[in-house]
Amino acid sequence: xxxxxxxxxxxxxxxxxxxxxxxxxxxxxxxxxxxxxxxxxxxxxxxxxxxxxxxxxxxxxxxxxxxxxxxxxxxxxxxxxxxxxxxxxxxxxxxxxxxxxxxxxxxxxxxxxxxxxxxxxxxxxxxxxxxxxxxxxxxxxxxxxxxxxxxxxxxxxxxxxxxxxxxxxxxxxxxxxxxxxxxxxxxxxxxxxxxxxxxxxxxxxxxxxxxxxxxxxxxxxxxxxxxxxxxxxxxxxxxxxxxxxxxxxxxxxxxxxxxxxxxxxxxxxxxxxxxxxxxxxxxxxxxxxxxxxxxxxxxxxxxxxxxxxxxxxxxxxxxxxxxxxxxxxxxxxxxxxxxxxxxxxxxxxxxxxxxxxxxxxxxxxxxxxxxxxxxxxxxxxxxxxxxxxxxxxxxxxxxxxxxxxxxxxxxxxxxxxxxxxxxxxxxxxxxxxxxxxxxxxxxxxxxxxxxxxxxxxxxxxxx
Length: 463
Ligand SMILES: *Cc1c(COP(=O)(O)O)cnc(C)c1O
Prior knowledge:
Elements: H1 3-21, H2 33-40, H3 51-62, H4 84-96, H5 107-123, E1 131-135, H6 138-155, H7 161-164, E2 173-177, H8 182-190, E3 197-199, H9 209-218, E4 224-229, H10 241-250, E5 254-258, E6 283-287, E7 299-303, H11 306-313, H12 341-375, E8 380-382, E9 390-395, H13 405-419, E10 425-429, E11 432-438, H14 446-461
Parallel strand pairs: 2-3, 2-4, 4-5, 5-6
Antiparallel strand pairs: 1-7, 6-7, 8-9, 9-11, 10-11
Helix pairs in contact: 1-3, 4-12, 5-12, 6-8, 6-11, 9-10, 12-14, 13-14
This protein binds pyridoxal-5'-phosphate.
Pyridoxal-5'-phosphate binds at residues 78, 137-139, 181, 183, 231, 233, 258, 260-261, 287, 299.
């Protein structure tokens, strides 16, 4: 073997060891960053080291500080694991090292992106002629869609953002649900629209269409964007799209939907009704690295008016070779970028239509099992209607009318992290500390759920 083969062979073996260890290894990291710094060493070497030795050092030194994100018992945040076809394809992406800017530069990439985009629109039940951009994540997908939205609503007033920027132009109103994801606020900041107007939500975190209609009517007419949500990170709830989009349309607003994980409900016949009305929006953001389980990173920006997307993100450079069908760079903020569509294509090609539906339904089934198992624990309350993949639970102290009801919830979460069987996040929702479970990993099994419920019961049983 030459040096390159030895390095790749080392990485292959280390990757398999890591993945095989996930079922028994504690899910939380067991070492702190300082420990890993020590193990890696801080002195910049004076000279070269063989690549395979470097890979071995990296894997060995980092292992204790790695979190079992791809474990079937990781339920923190909203993440997602790595489907084997997508992971293997991602290795090829690095080996192929394509710069996926132009069709002419990498015809293979353009082909995979076109096919994956068409499949995604089909599975997510969105218009087939949408423009689709493969971004780093849903934050950048929100950014991309909101840039297209901003330019489009301003151009209706005769203002040209691409040429004149924002300064001196009409103010764009942006209305969002009170429980939108923080990334929507970030994206609005990046596109220069500032803080949005927050519209009240109901007890599951869904925007209230009556409140939206009222807020729209109360403000000045003019360029307006409404941001809705498919999948609340606490409750999993979906905004009532039909009435909310109806209200937005009356105000001639652009409707954007953040569906980072929830949009995938559309891929399951059983859960698709949650997304009823979604296709009537103007743009949609979702993640492939969550529910679809491709490795980091990949988000998707989808815009009904493909020309609006191209106008906001497109590049014209004399040194580039433009294609009349549009190029991958016309749909995302970056120029140089890796071939994100290859792992997406591989996951979809391997799962097929029924595989994606089964994946979504399995995640939801596990979430329901968690809700049932936790509800049976003394003093536990599941706070949300478990309609999708998210479960929020709180644990009361034994003492009646105890004001410290949050303390037991936090205690249980800390004990779980010490125990290591699982990784579950704490959060604050509707004024209470909650244990928040997000089932997002393709590999989570009934056994993982049973082992986790057992750990939660043990943690809850301690005084
Ligand atoms: C995760 C998430 C985002 C942000 O996605 P990234 O891929 O982390 O950028 C946005 N909205 C919702 C609802 C999410 O769950």
